[in-house]
Amino acid sequence: MAKYLGKRLLQSIIAILGVTLVVFLVLNVAGDPVTLMLPANASFEEIEALKAKLGYDDPVFVQYFRFLGNALRGDFGLSYNYYQPALSVVLERVPATATLALAAFAVSLLISIPAGIVAAVRRNSKTDAVIRTLALLGQCVPAFWLGIMLMLLFSVKLKLLPTSGFESWSALILPAATLGLFSAATFTRMLRSNMIEVMGKEYIDTARSKGLSERVVVWKHAFKNALSSLLTVMGLQIAGLLGGAVITETVFAWPGIGRLLVQSINNSDFNVVEVIVILMATSFVVINFIVDVLYCVVNPRIQLQ
Amino acid sequence: MKDAVLKIENLNVIFHTKYGRANAVTDVNLELRRGEKLGLVGESGSGKSVTSKSIIRLLPSPPAELTGHIWYGDVDLLALPAREMERYRGNRISMIFQEPMVSLNPLYTVENQMGEVLRRHEKGLGRAQIRERVLDMLRRVDIPSPETRLRQYPFELSGGMRQRIMIAMSLLCSPEILIADEPTTALDVTIQAKILDLIHKLNTDYGTSLILITHDLGVIAQTVDYVAVMYAGSIVEKAPVKELFRAPLHPYTAGLLQSIPGSRPDGEELAVIPGTVPSIYRMPGGCAFHNRCGFACERCRAQKPPMTGQNGHYVACWRHGQEEGR
């Protein structure tokens, strides 16, 4: 197991390095930061002087390694917008996004696990049809529309929950529901089909032939098997929730990194964008690594190989 | 028969599918006596597995609809509520399956999966007692170093080993009836013989009655006392094993026996039954075998023959029904 995880860890590091390279190159091609820093009427000489001062006239790979070295020390340069280190600007927003993502993930699990299992166990029943339809709708409805509709219903009409804000727990409910429903729909559909597949396996017949109650057959023998193949998707979804919060955060004015990303792109605050993209990519890689570790925990077969 | 442990009366199994009604099992009557080894033979799709799964009600319903009676003592298993049925499964009536490679849950250890049976049916046993019972049973089915096996997962064991574990698991509560659905089909020939010996031995030692489902007449000849031959969902002939091999009455049984390799003198080609098993969605009228039978006459096409016979040898065929009376 240690060997397998060691290999996966190495792959993860390579993946993160790859991401930094791509981000660096794309942002370098996308625009010249120096022209943005100087007033529009700056002379050619002034531009060249600042370029030389900031090291932008060096060969690209030299710049990249300098960037990488600085990044390793946590130095991603200044935010042109906030006049603060870009990294701390982003890190300040992380707790808000993480809270939202975790709440959304919890919402999606709370909905999808019972829904997926019931749909699979009562396959082709009316309950199953309702769950399947809702899941399909949940996957089709865009977050910005769902967010606004929920806001309209619960905040404007019923006046139960705040439209935006970050102060109270009640403010978390609507954004978490908006963000979580999409994942809930995805999980429900996957869990249903996995459960149906697993329920057709012979070891389920064996479990039943032992006289086990249907509850034990479903939860102990089927669910755990169905879950192990769902882990990968769950990992990707959590990572997606961290990044996919962009729209939801904007709709609910949630002060997380998603909204910061949109603002920074609009303001050409490249250093901040750089930090956010690398952070999101890294969280993808890290979560995938965690999923691999969980696989080992769940599936004895990988453990021993 | 008063020493019958299981009596199947007019069992009919219909599957309601999107392609229509499928009569998987039609009017099956069978009796299993205490300590007896009963063989159920037939081609794939003849309804033998469905019959055996009906006994412990493993068929999902819907789509399956079961009618008739399955008497275990004076309890009609088909009339029991689902929760009640659970008390019999794995406890009084156990089952082992065809594919040992996939019959055990890949995520749990042998000890966990075997212990589960005892935890379910014999409440109040401690951890140590459960382990002792499991170890004892593993030894009885000749599993080497059983202590090591306890901690192992199914994928660490060979097919033969897994089938031994399935057998051990099925016998933990000393059931009265063991149903073995093609227990050796997926195994190597050498392992097959060992597993059959084991089943034979356990049947003798414990007095467990056995229902052995197989398409392999060789296995039947070696193992069982009494045979029922199934064709297209019905029993066409049932007889004591020696009687059946000596003097098969139904043309289908005769055809099956002639198609066993080695049943003909050297150099002669094996006999083949022409045609294929009819689809369960479109059963022919009359005798289901008539369109493959060399002796078929008008009556066979029009009317389904009843089961007739004497001295334990019964057949559903118009050719014999007449002479032997009821």
In short:
Chain A is mostly helical.
How would you describe this structure in keywords?
heterodimer, A: mainly alpha, MetI-like fold, about 80% helix, flat, B: 8-stranded mixed beta sheet, 4-stranded antiparallel beta sheet, about 35% helix, about 25% strand
Terminal Cα separation of chain A, in Å? 6 Å
Average pLDDT for all residues of chain A: 86
What would CATH call the architecture of the largest domain in chain A? Orthogonal Bundle
The helix/strand order of chain A is HHHHHHHHHHHHHH
> Reading side by side through the largest sheet of chain B, how are the strands ordered?
6-7-8-3-9-10-12-11
Number of strands of chain A: 0
Got a strand count of chain B?
12
Topology as H/E string of chain B?
Answer: EEEHEEHEHHHHHEHEHEEHHHEEH
Shape of chain A: flat
Oligomeric state, counting identical vs distinct chains: heterodimer
Mean pLDDT of chain B: 87
Portion in strands of chain A:
under 5%
Helix content of chain B: 25-40%
The secondary-structure class of chain A comes to mainly alpha
What does this protein structure show overall?
The complex is a heterodimer of chains A (305) and B (326). Chain A is mainly alpha-helical and 305 residues long. Chain A is built from 14 helices and no strands. The radius of gyration of chain A is 24 Å and the shape is flat. With 326 residues, chain B is α/β, with parallel strands linked by helices. In chain B, helix 4 runs parallel beside helix 7 and helix 5 crosses helix 7. The radius of gyration of chain B is 21 Å and the shape is globular. Chains A and B meet through helix 9, helix 10 and helix 14 of A and helix 2, helix 4 and helix 7 of B.
